[in-house]
Amino acid sequence: MTDTRTPPAPAVGHGESIAQRVLRVALTERVVLLAVLLVVVVVWFRLLGSGGYLVAPYDLRYLGNALESMVPFALLALAELFVIVSGRGGIDLSVGAIVSLAGMVFGLMVGEWGWPLLPSIVGCLVVGALLGAVNGTLVAYLRFPALIATLATYYAYSSLALVANANAPISTPPIVALHDLTRNVELPLLPPVPLHVFTILLPCAVLAWVALARSTYGRSLYAVGTNDVAAGYAAQPVTRTRFTAYVISGLLSGVVALVTVAQFASARPDAGTVGNGMALPAITIAVLGGVAIQGGIGRIGGVLVAALLVTWLNAGMLLAFEGSDGSRYQLLALGLVLVLSALLNTLALRRYGRLS
């Protein structure tokens, strides 16, 4: 069966002008476009800083420190990558609530029940995976719309996180001691970088890349997301593949729960839901990174570069405004970025029939 949503890419001949070639690369090679935008953002804020328009220097040390906030959003964007690629309207609005609930369970294990650290880490990851499995069951097996299913579990998980410790954070000495896991490390010729960029983000990104690009499961996931009917005729395990995507999303949310507990030196019941929550920024980063909301399209590299772009853009905006105005304009910027990224994805698919 032919997938009618994505037309075949037209042949590109040697008669293509330079402008047409640049447009094609910008629209279809998302990493290239994001890399250019990243350079533009950094140069722009550096110029503003040299002109005295920022409240503090936008230097390498500041950019290195900003990576601390990139880690959880990049991991959750990878989680969204799996569920969106799985197709049929795949999305996970509950990732922030899973972060809160799994983090509270981890806090109880380490800070209240006196569990050793390693079993507590495993328990937190298992809780995240089980919560993701609930989403997967609703979406893949019971065929609930993903938007409705994960919105419902968002409310349920958020409520459980609040009542887990009577709406109080857990900040006992064993929890506070975990903050050292997110300290900055000095590197030759580079500014200080948070330790968990190397110990958590990069290993998770490599494992996600292997799962998507070098495994049978990855090929099945892209096939299911592109056309699940055709994938079923090709003997692909459609339901199980889609279910597993939500389990992986929950597992990555469990990893983020560990990160947030260490960052805050506290297990907070609203860690993933405070303010506008973590889910919407993660979805924005995923779509900006070239993940097509129709399913079947998305790459790890694009998501990671998009996470870096959004992180350094937000960091610059905090310096461009005094007081809390910077954080308010961040929301406007995220909204504009989401609209722009969705528009670019649509243009790429309509004009060239592909996106990478």
Structure description:
The protein starts with 17 loop residues before the first helix and ends with a helix. Residues 1-13 have low confidence and may be disordered. The protein is mostly helical and 356 residues long. The longest helix has 28 residues, at 325-352. Helix 3 runs parallel beside helix 8 (195-213), helix 4 (95-112) runs antiparallel to helix 5 (117-141) and helix 8 (195-213) packs across helix 9. It contains 14 helices and two strands. It has helices at 18-28, 30-50, 60-85, 95-112, 117-141, 146-164, 173-176, 195-213, 216-226, 228-233, 238-264, 279-288, 300-320, 325-352, and strands spanning 184-187, 190-194. It is 69% helix and 3% strand. A two-stranded antiparallel sheet has the order 1-2.
Output the structural class: mainly alpha
Question: Could you tell me the mean pLDDT?
Answer: 88
Strand order of the largest sheet: 1-2
Largest sheet: 2 strands, antiparallel
Element order: H for helix, E for strand: HHHHHHHEEHHHHHHH
Number of helical segments with 4 or more residues: 14
Distance between the termini: 23 Å
Helicity range of the residues?
A: 55-70%
Name the beta content range. Answer: under 5%
Q: Tell me, briefly, the overall form.
A: globular
Number of strands: 2
Q: Would you identify the regions where 5 or more consecutive residues have pLDDT less than 50? A: 1-13
Q: Cα-atom Rg, whole angstroms? A: 21 Å
Features:
356 residues; mainly alpha; two-stranded antiparallel ribbon; 14 helices; 2 strands; globular; disordered N terminus
